Structure formats: structure tokens, C-alpha cells
Please model this.
Amino acid sequence: MYKLSGVTKNYQKGRETVRALRGVDLVVEDGEWLSIQGPTGHGKSTLLQILGGLDRPSSGVVDFDGRDLAQLRESEVTKVRAESMGFVFQTFNLIPTLSAQENVETALVPLHVSATARRQRAAIALEAVGLADRLRHVPGELSGGQQQRVAIARALVKEPKVLLADEPTGNLDEDTRDEIIDLLDTMWQERGLTMVFVTHDSTVARRGQRIGVMKNGRLTFKQAARSQSARSQTARSQPARSQTAELPVADASSSDLDPGTVPAAD
Model:
């Protein structure tokens, strides 16, 4: 799914050069759930934004399904993002004047899906996250957990290949956090998603198959967080997918956007 080689990202802050990413090498297999932790300001969100084509590296290769996102024209990156990537953020990023159904529909507008099909697909997506009875509610009429469910439905309604999440449970209490992670786990199991999560929460991180740690712009890995057979054990009816048990440990010494692609700060 992803293969990153020597990825760096530098920012200018006055006269100072901030090295947000320092030669990151990373392989994410198709169907893998990768969690990324690390201190605030050490590159987690920057890495996620580069994986999602929301930012470009200063150098290096960001291979997504055989295409280097770093070399594509902006219009091509936008197309890849619209078709293949779903985003979930801590702040939900819902449009306050739109209903839950209309918010979910926004993800389908760049794909030129007809209005009738958009409504149908949005309703199905909201039913899948347990909000069939909240289609016409605006965000202000929903709880935090319900708003995040709408954001998840919006991310998944276009049937993406990968789901990228930046602190998706950061604004939720523990019980609601567990409900949301259970929901995402089910979606991962049933849909064969590739998922990359940035989180400070170790309970959430341990749900992934691997845990990466970003520190000072470098990525290292802890031991496997979750059994690599987790998907097959809980979704036996699903086709077998690539597993990550044999992966080497890597050590790196717009108007076309729907509202779910607004980056969050690291």
C-alpha cells in the first residue's frame, strides 16, 4: 500500500529550519492497522499529512499503490485523495449547517456521484455506524461520539483503500472512545481497510498490529501490538489479506477537498 523511502520535511520558522521529518522509511502493507505514537511536536501529524497527500515532503519517495505522491501534480494528488483515502480527525470537521446525511454526502461530490446516489449511499453509511435515526440532525444536535460517527461515515462512504486518523478519540470520554474504536475495528475487519492511526492514547494504539514511535522526526517501532492473525480470527468469512509479521523493523536514523481533509495540528 505505502512505501516511504528517505522522507524528510523541513519548515522555515524565521531564520530557523525545523526538521519535522528526518529520513523516514516505512512500509505499510495492504490491510494493515498501524498505530503511531510520540510526543507532541515530533512529526506524527506531519507524517500522516504526507501519507494523505495533504502535504509534500522536502525530499524522498512516498509510494502509494505504485505512484509517488511527491511527484504527482496537485490535481492528480487531489484525485487520488478523493478516490482512495478517508480522513478522520479529532475535531470532527463537520459543517454545522448541514445535516448528518448532507455532511456524509460531501465526500462524494468530488467523485461526481449523482444527488440521488449520494443520498442513498450516505444513508447506508450512517446506518452502518448506528445513526440511521439521525440522518437529518445537524452536528449541534448530536453528541461528540455521534459527531465522530458521522465523520467516520463520511470517510468510508466513498469506499477508500486507506483510512488515516489523527487523534480520532482525543475529544471523547473513555466509554465513547471504546465505542468508536470498536466501530473502527469492525470496519477494518469487514472491509479490509488499511488504517494508520496517530494517537497519544496507548489503549487505542494497542488495537493496531504495529506501533510506530515518532521522536525528533524519526520513526522507530515497538514490538507487535496485536496478533497478526487478529483479522482472520474475528472475520473468518473475509478473504485472507497481507499480514505484517514478516515485515522488517524500519528505523529512520482546496475546493476539491471534502471537509474531512482539514489537517490537525501535531
Observations:
- The radius of gyration is 18 Å.
- The chain has a mean pLDDT of 86.
- The domain at 2-256 is CATH 3.40.50.300 (Rossmann fold).
